[in-house]
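The material for today's practical consists of a large collection of protein records. Getting from the letters to the tokens is the skill we practise here. To make this concrete, we reproduce a full record directly below:
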Amino acid sequence: MSELKVFFPEYNKTIYALSGTSVFECITRAGILIRTPCGGSGICEKCAVKIISGNVLVSKGCLKFFSQEKINAGYRLACCTFLEEDISKHYLSMAL
């Protein structure tokens, strides 16, 4: 497994995670609070994030909540999105 760098620009925080780690876990490890009333089961959309740069796979959970336009713009559910590539110079940003 490779170690990936994840940067949260609005908080000026960087964490390192192994490939396969969920974006939700990265957010939590960075000490950033995020709403997850469904407990990370991908059914409430409260953990929506926008991937500013870098590629992550689109999960079935994301397809339920986001239009193709939003998916193309980088919107994902943090609980259903997993790091799979080196994103050492890429960013994640919490969606409003």
